[in-house]
Amino acid sequence: MRRVIVTGGGTGMGRAIAEMFVSGGDEVYVLGRRREPLERVAAAHPGGRVVPLPVDLTDEEAVLAVAERLSEAPVDVLVNNAGGIIKENPVDTRGLFDLYRRTIDANLLSAMMLTQALWPAFRRPGGRVVNISSIAAHRGGGDAYAAAKAGLCGWGIDLARRGGPDGITVNTLTPGYVQDTEFFTEEGRSSRHDTLAAETMVGRAGTPDDIAAVVGFLASPEASWTTGQVLGVNGGALPGH
Ligand SMILES: NC(=O)c1ccc[n+]([C@@H]2O[C@H](COP(=O)([O-])OP(=O)(O)OC[C@H]3O[C@@H](n4cnc5c(N)ncnc54)[C@H](OP(=O)(O)O)[C@@H]3O)[C@@H](O)[C@H]2O)c1
Question: Which of 49, 89, 137, 219 is placed for a possible disulfide with 128 were both Cys, Cβ 3.0 to 4.6 Å?
Fold first, then answer.
């Protein structure tokens, strides 16, 4: 039984990723700000193998505290999935500065801080880090969101270099449009659903399970020679990425 940590594990892709690991017999810690979605995942899997840990990953002290708790035993897998677009329209430049900062905190620094705080606890060899970036890292989208997601890709490569000698792998996914999450709306769909689905080669939007399947491989022992990669999972919407 591996010890797996999934940030943003209460909804959307994070929930599907958490459930994929639980179904495989792992113990999964799900992190997010709201307690209720995390507890819903735990309730769907009685037996205590899903542990809800409410935390705001942009809060440095909270990150250190949760990492201390999680470091009580070796960490096998960390999936840095938490993030999203902050839906606000600032009225002035100072408001825009604040939005930039919060977007980069939520999508980039959250992952960097938690990973660094957990780093000594990773299983050596065998530890796995998977970052969830976005297709926006390659083609833009969301302004500071695209910048933050591109940052994850570069940071992930340096982290892979650091982990290599210890047998820890680090890879970053750049998903395209995935429905059935809270990313766009509570209903789980973009207002551009048909256009985004038609952009793909397979003619459909992605699902959280499509992403979980790739995370499952990257977290497996068989993926020990796959590291330092940025991998597009987008139904062919952006070929070669
Ligand atoms: N859906 C897409 O089309 C798409 C495409 C490419 C990339 N992505 C990325 O995929 C990841 C998962 O998104 P999703 O589509 O599954 O949407 P989602 O359902 O909105 O999931 C995002 C999760 O992140 C958590 N989160 C956000 N800020 C946090 C913070 N400061 N501290 C702790 N947890 C935080 C949220 O929980 P709380 O609100 O409770 O904190 C939520 O569970 C995100 O990083 C997103 O940017 C999504």
Answer: 219
